Amino acid sequence: METFEKIINLIKKYDYFLLVIHENPDGDTVATSLGLQIALNKIGKNVTTVCKDDVPKPFAFLPASKNVRKDFLVGDYDVIIVLDCGDLRRTGFPDRLKDFARHKKRLINIDHHPKNDLHKVANINLFDESAAAVSEIVFELIRQLHIPLDKDIATCFLTSLYTDTGGFKHSNTTPRSLEHASIWLASGARLKTITKNISLNRSVPSLKLWGIALSRIHKSSTGLVLSVVTREDMELTKATDDDLSGVVNMINTIPGSKAAVLLSETSDGRIKASLRTESDKIDVSKIAAFFGGGGHRKASGFTIEGSLEKGENNHWHILED
Ligand SMILES: [Mn+2]
């Protein structure tokens, strides 16, 4: 049986659905999930979205974003759908999902990340690495379910695509992506609200933090562009972790940049690295995987133990604990 058909059969047969989105959620995972939730509600299904972490402020405008829960009882659900997670650990609930897949055999993984351990655990994998955002895959699913689009679903899907393509600037944007964007706009997606909330709503603390990060840019002779942000910077500017999103894309816009890396200290005393490249010859997901992280060829990340310290001549060092 074809994958879509298998999933459609499960959706038709069962009533209680849990949608799992990845930790430190981005616009793709949050918005695709909310869009799918609204769509499944329309055909009478009970749907919960769960995320280990809070939904970042820029996505609070999305319909139903306030209903995202932080925990769940596995026994309450017939089917679990994991969206955009990349690997099992990023779901935030690896053990429960493994158990569910083993016993109930109704764990569905919908993703556009390269194949990973989640593929082995999930009972059904709906996977398309050529999709710029997971909403492009989920849209096909709700199309095959004959669920009509409305402006809320369309806004969610467009938000997902807008985020994962960097506002249609990244090279993962395909003709199909723009076709989808066009369909969603025609269905009432609120593009202006999306751009306002995601790209334009920069608070004073956020811009001050960006200022610090931009002032520390270092471009190496090999074309690697680096910058760092410490906890002290966050306290000084009163910015939050959400305010960092977009910085690494910005520093990657420097002419001649082969790849960009932003290192930032996390609230739990570690260092997060965000990697970007626009080059077809560089695969930053391999670098991230080397350090136990993951992501896409052109956007990835990882976290390591340690802290950042400024040395002589404005050189920064990673201190291991
Ligand atoms: Mn994604």
Would you give an account of this structure?
With 321 residues, this protein is of the alpha/beta class. The protein has two domains: 3-198, Alpha-Beta Complex (inorganic pyrophosphatase (n-terminal core)); 204-319, Roll (Diaminopimelate Epimerase, Chain A, domain 1), CATH 3.10.310.30. Helices cover 37% and strands 20% of the residues. It is built from twelve helices and 13 strands. It has helices at 3-13, 27-42, 94-103, 117-121, 134-144, 151-164, 175-186, 191-200, 204-215, 231-237, 247-251, 284-290, and strands spanning 16-21, 46-50, 79-83, 107-111, 124-127, 218-219, 224-229, 259-265, 270-276, 294-295, 299-305, 307-310, 316-319. The strands form three sheets. A six-stranded mixed sheet has the order 6-7-8-9-11-10, with helices on both faces. Strands 2-1-3-4-5 form a five-stranded parallel sheet. The longest helix has 16 residues, at 27-42. The protein is globular, with a radius of gyration of 20 Å. The protein starts with a helix and ends with a strand. The mean pLDDT is 94. The structure holds manganese (II) ion (MN). Manganese (II) ion is lined by residues 28, 84, 112, 133-134, 164.
Layout of secondary structure:
Blueprint: H1 3-13, E1 16-21, H2 27-42, E2 46-50, E3 79-83, H3 94-103, E4 107-111, H4 117-121, E5 124-127, H5 134-144, H6 151-164, H7 175-186, H8 191-200, H9 204-215, E6 218-219, E7 224-229, H10 231-237, H11 247-251, E8 259-265, E9 270-276, H12 284-290, E10 294-295, E11 299-305, E12 307-310, E13 316-319
Parallel strand pairs: 1-2, 1-3, 3-4, 4-5, 7-8
Antiparallel strand pairs: 6-7, 8-9, 9-11, 10-11, 12-13
Helix pairs in contact: 2-5, 2-6, 5-6, 6-7, 6-8
Bound molecules: manganese (II) ion (MN).
